Amino acid sequence: MRTDTSPTIYRKDYTPPAYWVRTVEMGFDLEPSATRVATRMTLERNRAGRDRTLTLYGEELELVQIRLNGKALGKNAYALKDGVLRIADAPERVTLEIETLLRPDRNTSLMGLYVSNGNFFTQCEAEGFRKITYFPDRPDVMATYKVMLRADKKKYPVLLSNGNLIEQGDLGDGRHYALWEDPFKKPSYLFALVAGQLVCQEEKIKLKSGREALLQVWVEEGNLDKTQHAMDSLINSIRWDEERFGLELDLDRFMIVAVGDFNMGAMENKGLNIFNTKFVLANPRIATDVDYGNIEAVVGHEYFHNWTGNRVTCRDWFQLSLKEGLTVFRDQEFSADMIGTDSGRAVKRIDDVRVLRQAQFPEDAGPMAHPVRPDSFVEISNFYTVTIYEKGAEVVRMYQTLLGRDGFRKGMDLYFERHDGQAVECDDFRAAMADANGRDLTQFERWYSQAGTPRVVASVAHDAAARTYAITLQQSCPSTPGQKTKQPFHIPVAVGLLGQDGKDLPLKLRGSDLQGTTVVLELTEAQQTFVFDGVADLPVPSLLRNFSAPVVLEYDYRDDELAFLMAHDSDPFNRWEAGQRLALRRLLALTAAVRAGGGMAVDPALGESLRLTLTDDALDPAFREIALTLPSETVIAEQMDVIDPQAIHQARRFLRHALAQALRADLVDAYRNNQTPGAYSPDAVSAGKRALKNLALSYIGELDDAAAHALAQTQCDGADNMTDRFAALAALANGSAPGRAAALARFYQDFEDEPLVIDKWFSLQASARTTDVAAVRKLMQHPAFSLKNPNRARSLIFSFCNGNPSQFHAADGSGYDFWAEQVIALDALNPQVAARLARSLDRWRKYAPALRDRMRSALERVAAAPALSKDTKEVVGKSLA
Ligand code: PHE
Ligand code: ZN
């Protein structure tokens, strides 16, 4: 039990290691209740320093013995305290042999070596290797690994680790072994092993250079019919990185393994990626179009890490976004290129921005706000955040916006030329981008050092006589914890001007030779004015096209200007954005009306604008679907000074219902015209049609009448794929159709043996309108529920606490009591998952006093719980601070 408070680690305190590790040899005798790990490593003192203390980290290990240069070390030869083992005055060259004993069967944290459904898996990022052996477990220490695995042959027929299989054979007495060698040096967080009963789909491909590589996707036997999409995605990823960045797979063998118990999405261990089953397994029966897209993105993401993360890694964990922001950017670009069309790319862009606004903007405005390159942390696991990942990707995207695609590629080439095989900093990436393009990107550094979402306020002045149009941009950034005032950012603001005919004007920016109909203004001061010449008639400005920077852009558009942009903007992102701005305005007004106790009234203009979009057959169905999706309750909440979850919920429901009434005939047409007959295919065109059809179904469902029920029921009964079946079930679950209960029961029966589908079943009910705390508690009693499996816990508990705001924020505080109980229960099993759930109350200070006080009590209750992990302690501590 931990009684002291855990220390805060600061970026400024970084010092290079006193010793480098050159080689690591490990032997594992795998046994669930007692796994023996023998490690032999060679170390060399770092000549750049004078420190002679060898520092190793270890957690929850039984240390059997430790030998230095052949001699066993007695208890006095080293100091072991709080998970740090120090050997003072070590010689220049050291061979260290360490034997540890582990209990993987009792490991519910899912960090280090653990057992899932009878098989062995590891997870070492960020600091899990220290749960396997004592080691200088820090990313700037890179070594080559040779790994011997020994285990019972019947129970664990498959033995995998990083790199190449050198040798395998029998040991007699029913045991066997496999010896693996990874030719590339790597930090310990990229180590992995897998052992158990698994089967694989494999394929050999020829790489660009002509070399051959073996690709494998490993799963449990019953899942071999669900690996094809992951394999296709892997091959597409390999091809894409060869084409777009000239980066080739550097291994002869590349493996993906699926595991049902996993804290995160997936892990990029060198040559042996380990995936949450959610991001591997798919066939039309169990996976939706969204699942197919996510699998492609995550397979790409992990594969792209092989260069951005593994070949070039992070010096320390403060640099996490160096690999994560860059790799998310790469997977976003990959997914966009896989769709191929301009409008498909735009839909992907809009999806990514939606995630940013829904999750990252609130984080950046809350108690856990941190820079893309944090200055401090207590527990690094808490910093695998939307800021590091998604905002980090936006920061990388801005280089491309500023330097152009070719300039960005030059920067990437220089980055690898300089740093291949090294552990580096975010600053090194920025320097490569700057130097390769002869650009000064000094000010750009503030995107890494300053937290908070910048606000850019635009104002315009048209001088008809002088034919000039001036845009003035003013930037500011709110305070965040530890950062009261902010310096101006270097912000690329892409703009266009629409003439009165709705067409783009050719732009002449004064003092610049930029040409075209979109120009990127570089805002670097607190306030700057940009003048366009030759603008005779008053245009409508299209600002921040394609969301060229992760900022909030404010401009006082009139409603009719927004409708005009919705109908005409050549930039699809801003076409969508105009509709969102209009809808958000209405939703905020309706929310205010609910709060004032007045009646809600609909605005026919919004309905008409949406009708034009819905019925415009020149627009991709996928685009029409996102354009007709209203801002979420979370996004609306972020716009309010005091959040009123009930009023927001009522307002949004009212608007959806009103739109369904006004557009009913067109929705029915959209439903009929976007059927996808024939065999299911997850391609973007078919998926877009299904998305629009199912959006129509969900609007029609708002009417909750017999015709709506029949439509959903028929689709639910007849669907031959999960996308359609689940959409129909959702429509039933959110209404009062007589077949609701039966449909849910039947869905459960049909998919009882498919854990990923049962997750959907829990999740759908957790976020359904009528599901209150009592109903969630009842679902927790279901035999299929388990707190130990992260996917299952997320499907029910997280879906309720984060995805059902009006029920979670029940006036009596019962949602918060439930939340506190679950955080505490989860914390005893799995601190990382608990700490994520702990973040559901991040925004508590923004609620009305009655709710706020109840949330504070719940936070205090968790903070006071005995033996709380440092993960959860950091989160609730920062919330209450
Ligand atoms: N590095 C993984 C990724 O982004 C995420 C991860 C972090 C997985 C920590 C497990 C543990 O791809
Ligand atoms: Zn990643």
From TrEMBL:
All copies of domain Peptidase M1 alanyl aminopeptidase C-terminal, residue ranges: 559-881
Keyword tags: Aminopeptidase, Hydrolase, Metal-binding, Metalloprotease, Protease, Zinc
Peptidase M1 alanyl aminopeptidase Ig-like fold domain sequence ranges: 452-556
Cofactor: Zn(2+)
Pfam assignment, any one: Peptidase_M1
Record domain Peptidase M1 membrane alanine aminopeptidase: where: 230-447
Family classification: Belongs to the peptidase M1 family.
Protein name, entry field: Aminopeptidase N
Species the sequence originates in: Oxalicibacterium flavum
